[in-house]
Amino acid sequence: MPTEKDSPKASLEKERAKQQRKAAKAEQDDYLEEALEETFPASDPIAPGDVKDHAK
Predict the structure, then answer these.
(1) CB atoms < 10 A from the CB of 37, how many?
(2) d(CA 27, CA 39)
(3) Is omega for the bond preceding 45 within 30 degrees of 0, making it cis?
(4) Where are the beta strands (DSSP E) in 1-56?
(5) Handedness of CA 39, 44, 45, 49 (dihedral sign)
(6) Where do the structural domains in the chain lie, given as residue ranges?
(7) d(CA 42, CA 37)
(8) How far apart are CA 43 and CA 4, in angstroms?
(9) What pTM does this model have?
(10) How far apart are CA 1 and CA 10, in angstroms?
(11) Which residues contact 24 (CB under 8 A, 6 or more apart)?
């Protein structure tokens, strides 16, 4: 007897959560890359702040 864990809906929800985590990490990586590009070649370290600050 199939369980809810094995259902297509549960599998889809798990995959969506996985994709959202990947998207959030990619967005953060983009902000860090942009911060680095904006400070280069200055000698000051990057200060990207909180990712949520950029989403406004």
Answers:
(1) 9
(2) 19
(3) no
(4) none
(5) negative
(6) 14-54
(7) 10
(8) 55
(9) 0.48
(10) 15
(11) 51
Cβ–Cβ < 8 Å for 4, 10: yes
Nearest to 36 by CA among 27, 44, 28, 46: 46
| Tokens coding 16 | 């969506």
Residue 17 is encoded by which pair of tokens?
């959560």
Length of the chain: 56
Token reading at 18: 């996985």
Tokens 């995959």, residue? 15
pLDDT in tens, 1-56: 455 567 888 889 999 999 999 999 999 999 888 888 877 666 666 666 665 655 55
